[in-house]
Amino acid sequence: MWHSSAKVDGLDIFYREAGKKDKPTILLLHGFPTSSYQFRNLIPLLADQFHVVAPDYPGFGNSSMPSVDEFDYTFDHLSEIVERFIEALGLRQYSLYLFDYGAPIGFRIASKYPERVESLIIQNGNAYNEGLREFWEPFKAYWKDRSPENANALRKFLTIDATKWQYTNGTRNPDRISPDNWNMDQFFLDRPGNDEIQLQLFYSYGSNPPLYPKWQEYFRQHQPPTLLAWGKNDAIFPGEGAYPYQRDLKNIEFHLLDTGHFALVEDGNEIAGLIRQFLITSLPIEMAAI
After folding, report:
1. pLDDT in tens, 107-149
2. Helix or strand (DSSP H, E) at 189
3. Is 2-133+208-288 CATH 3.40.50.620?
4. Coil, helix or strand at residue 96
5. How far apart are CA 26 and CA 167, in angstroms?
6. Which one of 30, 51, 77, 261 is the catalytic residue?
7. Which residues make Cβ contacts (< 8 Å) with residue 5, sequence separation at least 6?
8. Are the C-beta atoms of residues 209 and 216 closer than 8 Å to each other?
């Protein structure tokens, strides 16, 4: 695995990369509050047959972290940065692994450039109103009224207890989840100024539900081959948000896994196997013969 950075709009965008570049590409898009670090174990499991790339967004992981006065932290802007990152690396076609924040970023790109997307791999990433349940009530209040009081109500999601909860809630064996996961994420969350970055993105997440109909139309019109591997015990994006994909996508392989939000941590080997088999059977013959 290589660890590199690409210059995008004057920012250093860190990324992990493995596999030969002439193999089919999988672009892994991370969620909150993590980074490409979440894919550190998945990447080598796929790199023998695929070219795997995982960037960190601005403000996350090892990428540049301009302040909120220097950079517009919105999902529109993050998707533009990822789009330019893709162009900087010369990726012409790819499969998208979409998790959490990676879903609204990736769906923006996929619906804009459907001809570039060979397939979708969706893991606890939302595109339907059914997936926004009780957990999202304080966020919805913030979207309606960006007051200091509503902002402060969301700061609890930036604490070590909340980060640990994201990793352990809904898992079969919480005591087998390494604390390295939440400790690494919390290190980056606790950097001075990062709390304001995350609050901006909490607010900007409200721009995503109005785009759901557009993304659903993309599914219906272009029918990208899709693998859904979803932790069904996730309180953030529960299983209810997974089922609606079956309404719009005809070529979908559907798996609900008995785990939580960060399904890769507990079921990474199983998900890697699902991805491998799915891509080998879904990609064009000349690409799948690898």
Report:
1. 999 999 999 999 999 999 999 999 999 999 999 999 999 999 9
2. helix 180-189
3. no
4. strand
5. 24
6. 261
7. 12, 13, 14, 15, 62, 63
8. no
Residues written for the chain: 290
DSSP 8-state code for residue 22 = T
79-109: pLDDT as tens digits: 999 999 999 999 999 999 999 999 999 999 9
* Ramachandran bin of 121, using left for φ above 0, alpha for ψ from -120 to 50, beta for the remaining angles: beta
pTM: 0.96
d(CA 280, CA 290): 8
Taking the C-alpha atoms of residue 51 and residue 27, their distance in angstroms, rounded to an integer, is: 9
Task: Give residues with Cβ within 8 angstroms of 61, minimum separation 6.
Answer: 14, 30, 34, 35, 36, 37, 188
**Burial (CB count <10 Å: 0-12, 13-18, 19+), residue 182:** buried
Specify whether 261 is catalytic.
yes
Question: At a CB cut-off of 8 Å and minimum separation 6, what does 112 contact?
Answer: 83
Residue 20, token pair as written in the block:
């030969």
- Tell me if 233 sits within 8 A of 258, measured CB to CB: yes
